[in-house]
Amino acid sequence: MAVAEETISPLLVTDRRTRLYQGIWGKCLAEFLGTAVLVLLGCGSVAVAVVGLPGTGRTAGPTIFFQGSGDWLIIVWGWAFAVAFGVYVCQGVSGAHINPAVTLAFAIRRRFPWKHVIPYWIAQTLGAIGGAAIVLGLYTNAMNTFDQQSETFNATGHTIPTLSIFSTFPAPYFHGGIWGPLVDQIVGTAMLMLAIAAVIDIRNKAVKANLGPLIIGFSVAAIGISIGSNAGYAINPARDLGPRIIAWLGGWGELAFPGNGPWFDTYFWIPIVGPLIGGIVGILVYDLFIGDVLHAMGRAKERPPVGRVAERPVVDDDE
Fold first, then answer.
1. Which of 189, 248, 267, 283 has the fewest other C-beta atoms within 10 Å?
2. C-alpha span between 234 and 219 (Å, rounded)
């Protein structure tokens, strides 16, 4: 049974805190929690596929994973639902950016206050750190067991598969080049931003019945299915940076920072810069091809037909 909003008493809010929560602080709290939910569920799905299923005897061996498309679909749909639930958690308070690339794009083309960009970024990154820390706590035993039975990287004592639970890296076929992964992140985030812009645009048959977050989650699944193998489709600077920090603190060392591996070097900046550029590209492309057209069509409806003069409003004598 639903409970009327007015019957729910505040848990911690007092009159003294009300004004604080009504400002940017309340929105940052929401962004923190929404991003934490996103990363907890998303990185958790990777942990299930990489170490959880092998470690519980559900695969052919304790270090055997990704034998088929099924494991990849666990991750794809895990991140899709993670995005959806993260947005549902905080959309009523902060708008549910939960992604610095979205925040920057909205500041450029959706009149989001520039003074709120940095606070949002900080809250999103801290939320990602919090969510990743919980995943580390939940799966430490499974990851250690996996790494102890695998070939570890240098003196870290950890492996690239367990790093993938937290942060992204490029596929070997890029041969250490930066342009392929960078373009991949730009394109992937641009597609995400296109989907977000379309879903929230009330002029463009916006999604009804509060299904927007779910549709945005589906767009993340589409990106993962289409181009996710290139570089792990971070498409969110906080989603990669926060967990990468936890991986570095957890002992993955240079694998996490600066992002050195057998076939990649100093990779950490690509999942940050690429999505920020991609978010801008996505919102500009949407506005150029769709937003401006919708605006022009709306203006056309306001004009009288050719050859007729717009009717003047009737004015009473008293006026």
1. 248
2. 13
For the record, the structure tokens of 295 come out as 């605006």
Record the tokens describing residue 37, joined without a space. Answer: 């939910």
Give dist(CA 315, CA 312) in Å, integer.
9
Give the Cα separation of 233 and 223 in Å (integer).
7
Residue with tokens 């299904």: 211
Largest CA distance in the chain: 91
d(CA 34, CA 27): 10
Residues 6+ apart with CB under 8 A from 155: 253
Alpha carbon distance 231, 10 (integer Å): 44
Looking at residue 312, its pLDDT comes to: 53
CB of 253 closer than 8 Å to CB of 152: no
- 117 close to 123: Cβ distance less than 8 angstroms: no
Per-residue pLDDT of 232-261, as tens digits, reads: 999 999 999 999 999 999 999 999 999 999
What percent of the chain lies above the pLDDT cut of 90? 78
Write out the two tokens for 118.
């940095």
